[in-house]
Amino acid sequence: MKVIKIGGGCLNGKKTIARIVDLIEEKAKGHIIVVSALNGVTDMLISGMDIALEQEDAIPRLISRLKAQHINIAKHLIHSRSALAQCTKDIGKMLHQLERLLYGLNFTREITPRLYDVISSYGERFSAQLLTSILRSRGLPVVHRAPHKIGMITDGKFSDATAKLKQTSRQLKQHLKPTNGPDTITFIPGFFGVSPQGDITTFGRGGTDYSAAVVATAMNAGLLEIWKDVDGFMSADPRLVPEAGLIPVLSYEEAAELAYFGAKILHPRSVEPVRTKNINIEIKNTLNPDAAGSLITAKSPRSKSIIKSVAYDMDIAVLKVHASGVGARPGILAQVAGKLTENGINIRSVITSQTCISLLLSLGDVDTGRAALAKLKPRPYRRIEVLNDIALISIVGDGILRKTGIAARCFTAVANCGVNVEMISFGPSRAALYFLTKQKDLTTAVNAIHSTFFSSPRCTPNPG
Ligand code: ASP
Ligand code: MG
């Protein structure tokens, strides 16, 4: 049995969805499908909350738009009248619940983390119901199981939950085995689970990959397939590096590092559950379903240059906390990290020296982070500095730490193109090295590194 994850990027418009439905009929019998929201719907729900908070009148409009978006597809793909009526009724029930939640939000004048997570989970509820109805109308044996009713149990952390694997495995098996026949297609909405206290909790943006990985692990699946609208992991972003190529095989470690450091192919935590059972992940392009995509597995063949990919992330900023002797003063890092965590800020990485702690944060967190640290009393630092005109570049490949000369080659290539490196961290993991440059130097630096490791060295001037 396989678990297949269908991404929101492939659920985009009538024509594309029609093709996905055919693919499901052809390839997904007997398997479990974990599905994302239709393209753009989660964003719509999230921005809808802010609008609903301000304007009660906007709520019915939002509900009508969501209804139209899903029911138009149903009308296009469900040919039986009674099946269409049933689908409209089932989605209508969910829309009604959502509407009540939005009125509740407007009434209480507050978007609590609890409400935020429940409301943002509706996209997946709609899409799973829609696909179930469409395939059922074709006479196929289809079941639709809601994650919170079959024991997808989380640790309760809103918007960044982790599944409790042991409990979840036990419960998912118990609930899914009886309905999972040899030809049955099982649909499960991705992105969320439920805490032991009964709260809907999401796995963070893009979390359906993670949901699917948890289901695959719980059910001892033979394979986890991720259906997307691209072939898989590339040696670099092809928008920056036209000659970038597909990476056919990656290790769990490499995929996790690449996902973490910017390649928007996979939710960074998806490999955590599957690697405990050695389940492979295959990325499949639904626009090109017979092409070999990227395979993620326990051990991947080393390339001669070790490096598999050069990734980047622009959603990054550095909070530099200057203080004397920070390297030798034991409490300060804990104090700073504690304050940020208290304010809900995720520290992406830390580099410390004798005089400075550099905290890598997401761009959107940096102002809150600075304000939070300003409240520390007594002030444990001299000065705080923010760098936000930066890009994080990483090179990823298993064995990067053991092979000599890789860092030298990387930084020589960058220096030869006249790019200044702002900060380096080597060996946060066995598979990655990363550094920061100014944003204006990104294209030049990425191309310089890519051509050093993948072809002949050259410099590409930055556009503009
Ligand atoms: N729909 C959610 C999001 O857009 C989860 C996902 O698509 O994986 O973040
Ligand atoms: Mg999505």
- What is the overall number of helices? 14
Roughly how much helix do the residues carry, as a percent range? 25-40%
Taking the sheet with the most strands, its summary is:
8 strands, mixed
Ligands, deduplicated: aspartic acid, magnesium ion
CATH topology of the domain at 2-229: Carbamate kinase
Overall pLDDT confidence: 93
CATH architecture of the domain at 2-229: 3-Layer(aba) Sandwich
Strand order of the largest sheet: 3-4-2-1-7-9-10-8
- Counted beta strands: 18
Q: What's the CATH class label of the domain at 2-229?
A: Alpha Beta
- The termini sit apart by 51 Å
Tell me the CATH superfamily of the domain at 2-229: Acetylglutamate kinase-like
Q: Which stretches of 5+ consecutive residues score pLDDT under 50?
A: none
Strand content: 15-25%
Q: Specify Rg, calculated over alpha carbons.
A: 24 Å
Gross morphology = globular
Structural class, judged by helices and strands?
A: alpha/beta
